[in-house]
Amino acid sequence: MRKRPLLVLFFILFTLSCLIKPKKSPIEQYIEQSGRNENCGVVQGVLSSITEKENSLELSIKQASFWKSKSKKYFIKKILVYLKKESIQEELHLGNQVQVVGSIESFQKPTNLGQFNEYDYYKGKKYDCKMFADRIVIKVHRKSKLEEEIRKCKLQWQNICEKQLPKSQAGVIEAMVLGEKSNLDCGIKRLYQTNGIGHIMAISGLHISFLGMGIYKLLKRLGMNETGAVILSVLTIFLYGMMTGFSVSAVRAIIMLATALFARLIGRTYDMLSAMALSGMITVMYSPLQARNSGFLLSYGAIIGIGCCYPILKKTFQSKSKLIDSILVTFSVQIVIIPIVAWFYYEIPLYGFFLNLLVLPVMSLLLASSILGIFSTYIHPAIGRFLFGTVHIILRYYEILCKTVIKLPFSNLVIGKPRKIQLALYCIFIVSILLFLAKKKKRGLFFLLPICFLILSPIPSHQLEVTFLDVGQGDSIFFKSGKTSYLMDGGSSDVKQVGTYRILPFLKAKGIRKLDYMIVSHTDRDHINGLIEILERVEKKEFRVGYLMLPKILNFDHSYKKLEKLAEKANVKVYYIEKGMKWEKEKLKVLCLHPNKNFLVSDKNECSMILSLQYGFFRMLLTGDVEQEGEKEILSHLKTHDVLKIAHHGSKSSSTEKFLEKVNPKIGVISCGFNNAYGHPHKEVIERMKKRKIKLYNTSLNGAIDIISDGKKIKILMNRKKK
């Protein structure tokens, strides 16, 4: 450390950056204070990036101002704008002064465990807010010539990839070589990530060193002097960074390679860890929030593994075998990044270590074939086709490898989000073993390192845990007793792909490898569209579900049949639940109070499955979307409950006076969307709760709500508190 003062300074800056709480900009404060309807207005600024999707565009506008008619103007550093292609009247160019009209919103902080932190991610990229625009007008037709030429070049190269390769493979190469992930196939992306090779799709040191050192060596062979070769090589990788969007890993690699080349130029020794520290300091000083970014931590973690762990392991084994050397490098990286992967993705690809040994050796060939294939297409398409043929074979090889490995037992260990104390113990264990190896060089200690993975294993709970997830305008309730897990409903009418982006990440963050019971109260889409997504994943062997529980009713619809078919395809057993059925697992008693199989009404909500949960002396009533008729059906045999899930998102047609009198809850929980179009929860319902002194929690205000009980006491945790 004494010989590397930059490394010490980097760790100090990194720690401070992790502790910094970002200050809200004036525009964020305005959005927070105003209602949704008051956020419509005009943004004017300079167009700095354009990303094309299938039917829409993502625009980045910098040096912008926001205003409403005759109101104060708010300065915006950078804003992300979503716009439909049909709204564009003329061709857009980088550097254009544009004016967009639409509704601005703040980036969302996670309201559920496991949910993506949109706020930290985009604030780390210097965005203040986002806008959903209705129209755009070019006010000044100026262009940023260099940036526009780079964008055109990138679009041409994308076009070449799409002509030469199948769609899914073109998307991989565009991500891998051009940093363009908008065309990346979701299935392929998941396949690579699940198997622990998702990093190959990121612009990293391999890409930058391949291009930069390749240019440098070529120029030297052509007779250029050292100064010219270094300057042109650094300029090339800088322009490449511009083209690929200056991702965290790309910036790190560019600064490190530039440092290596300039060290060579002035006759100084290059130190990898000092160069890494320099790049890290520049990154966190520019944007402190990048220190919390998964890409930053994985990229720098890999370098720390190679720079700190690998030399110790190499000295310990003293092997001249290239295979052993490759294994030690890969292992060194893995032991550093595994806790980072667990913290952000909640699962560890068990065979990822071995898979990387098979994937990485051909990465250089894949990159070379891709880049040369793009350039040679300009010379003659046949040469391009030949080189892209190599690309096709390698990508097929990767795909076959991944699909084979994912079928192996325990291919992916879902361990949940580790606690901070677990991460601390992991680090202490690893550092202790490495320090001992450095002094004693006893190979036997090396085999203790895999034990550290046990430190990250889920800590078992011996209480009832219930979570009302924040799914917007919808319902999803998770509960767990011992090792048995349940999910009652999972859908939303305003959050897109709620199963993929909220429910599944939550389950994985809780360490749920298999959902024992998936329960459907009724088949409205705001209760089941996320469950459908999960069952589709089960069919692809990406998740497991034991049983699907459906209400035993006479008037089932298309959605009911769809769930049955999906369960059959996914090999999930279906149970049909009716009034009076009960079961007990690990101290938790579950009793179905409704519906009676002969209960027939036209409204699906009235047929909602109602479950009573009992854990020791603690009782909770889960009501779906039941309304007055359904409530009347169960009044005669209804007992008091500590917690009531307020039916139908707090609709005034539910939770009648008689029903509340009979249940007599201490706590009520409402699941609904913020500022939803239905006005849920209705004022009448809130008044009824206040009248009975029922403590009310609302997912739209409090985020996900955790209720924990040992059978006597009740503990309530909220994911956020909205002012």
TrEMBL record:
It is a multi-pass membrane protein. GO terms for biological process: establishment of competence for transformation. Keywords: Cell membrane, Membrane, Transmembrane, Transmembrane helix. The chain crosses the membrane at residues 196-216, 223-243, 273-289, 295-313, 325-346, 352-375, 382-401, 421-438, 445-461. The keyword Transmembrane helix applies. Pfam families: Competence, DUF4131, Lactamase_B. Residues 473-674 form the Metallo-beta-lactamase domain. GO terms for cellular component: plasma membrane. It is found in: Cell membrane. InterPro entries: ComA-like_MBL, ComEC_N, Competence_ComEC/Rec2, Competence_DNA_uptake, DUF4131, Metallo-B-lactamas, RibonucZ/Hydroxyglut_hydro. The keyword Oxidoreductase does not apply. This is DNA internalization-related competence protein ComEC/Rec2. It comes from Velocimicrobium porci.
